[in-house]
Amino acid sequence: MRIGVLGTGTAGQALAGRLSELGHDVRMGTRDVAKSLARPDEAFVAWRGEHPAVELETFAAAAVRAEVVVNAGNGNAALDILAAAAPLDGKIVLDVANALDASSGFPPAMSVKDTDSLGEQIQRAHPGARVVKALNTVAAHVMVHPDLVAGADHTVFVSGNDGEAKAVVAGLLEQFGHTDVVDLGDITTARGAEMYLPLWLRLMQSLGTATFNIKVVR
Amino acid sequence: MRIGVLGTGTAGQALAGRLSELGHDVRMGTRDVAKSLARPDEAFVAWRGEHPAVELETFAAAAVRAEVVVNAGNGNAALDILAAAAPLDGKIVLDVANALDASSGFPPAMSVKDTDSLGEQIQRAHPGARVVKALNTVAAHVMVHPDLVAGADHTVFVSGNDGEAKAVVAGLLEQFGHTDVVDLGDITTARGAEMYLPLWLRLMQSLGTATFNIKVVR
Questions:
Q1: Residue B127: how many other CB atoms lie within 10 Å
Q2: What is the dihedral of CA B133, B134, B138, B140, to 10 degrees?
Q3: CB distance A114–B109 less than 8 Å?
Q4: Which residues contact B193 (CB under 8 A, 6 or more apart)?
Q5: A203 vs B184: CB contact, 8 Å cut-off?
Q6: CB of A107 less than 8 A from some CB of B
Q7: Which chain A positions have a beta carbon within 8 Å of B116's beta carbon?
């Protein structure tokens, strides 16, 4: 598939890298290509060296040919990033972000919650897009290598209004190695997946690692 | 142990009944004993018939001799209920409630969230009490019979400022049959356990049952 991954941070690198390794045609989007290339960030330079097939382009250029656009930047910038990547009509928008406000220290407050969610905000801003919330409940390395935790015997979620789009995303998650993808329902169910974050953060502290996940046992 | 269970609904019945069956000295607290006895509620009448050892008393009378006071009523009434049961100095207060506002339909909004929690509100209102948040992440029958789900191979949480109180509560949970009790940290971590509720509610809808739980896989 032709996939545009928006965001050059930990989640963007993990997703763009793994999708490219799996044989997809992947472009990575950033706000300012020259600035990103000039960034004194050894990890990003090393990542680019390891993934020469992934072109670094503007948000708009990374999205324009894509069938799937992945929102993998800072959650608080998500609406700006996707506005720069528009129009997204007909495209699947896989939103993996969390919008946390760390300005008051740990634990961060949530920028959107309870009666709304980032997934819904994105869907409202781009009514022609097919938004699917997924993977925001695990760390970047667990998103793309679920076998790092207990042989992948754990659960991830999809939320969205378009059943076909959710099936495409579930297929990508299964290519990553996920074994249990639970369909929570329409895009309003992203509230549930996003509000799990405070528990995830406390579990990370208590367990002393981000290499974990939850399994829905039934 | 001497245990006062405040609340006569589903959670109160499940907890008081199971604690009594396990040999504890259990009293059940209600606002108005005569009114509760006159309630045309066949399930409650049947429950009382099955648990003659559990005396029904006022909140204050159920709490006064108790070493552990269980807040098992409606979460939105929790502060009123516990005020009626005060003083709680030195007592362990096991808070299993969720404060949800269903006035706008499904899904309910959360009455307290993000930068505060019901557990913290109770601790602030009763600074001499030793508040432990636990069991709010599962349905009442799963609280006390975890073996109903996958042989109890799943996780529950404790949050609280007092390590000894958390150990006592963890011991009770293990008597119920819980096999994995994760200590999230101080009472502020109740925010995490409480904000999991929106995901729990959506999972209940998606799975079509409340007989499930999550396992923290690490």
A1: 9
A2: -100
A3: yes
A4: A199, B119, B133, B134, B136, B137, B157, B159, B184
A5: yes
A6: yes
A7: none
CATH number, domain B2-207, options 3.40.50.720, 3.30.70.660, 3.40.50.1580, 1.10.10.10: 3.40.50.720
Residues B21-76 have pLDDT tens digits of: 999 999 999 999 999 999 999 999 999 999 999 999 999 999 999 999 999 999 99
Q: What is the largest CA-CA distance in chain B?
A: 50
With a cut of 90, say whether residue A104 has pLDDT above it: no
Q: How far is residue B39's CA from residue B37's CA, in Å, rounded to a whole number?
A: 6
Where are the domains positioned within chain A? Answer: 2-207
Asked if B216's CB is within 8 angstroms of A150's CB, the reply is no
CB of A121 within 8 Å of any CB in chain B? no
Q: Which of residues 176-205 of A touch B (CB under 8 A)?
A: 182-185, 188-189, 191-193, 195-203, 205
- CA–CA gap between residue B187 and residue B171 (Å, rounded): 18
Q: Examine residue A146 and say whether the peptide bond preceding it is cis (omega within 30 degrees of 0).
A: no
> In the block, which residue shows the tokens 């006569």?
B8
Start-to-end CA distance of chain A, whole Å, equals 34
- The pTM of this model reads 0.97
Q: CA-to-CA distance for A218 and B210, rounded, in angstroms? A: 9
A39–chain B Cβ distance below 8 A for any pair: no
Smallest CA–CA separation between A31 and chain B, in Å? Answer: 31
Name the residue among B97, B89, B90, B87 with its Cα closest to residue B6.
B97
Token pair, residue B25, equals 């000295």
- Option in B191, B203, B215 nearest A198 (CB): B191
Please give the biggest Cα pair distance in chain A.
Answer: 50
3-state SS, residue B17: helix
B78 — phi, psi (to 5°)?
-60, -45
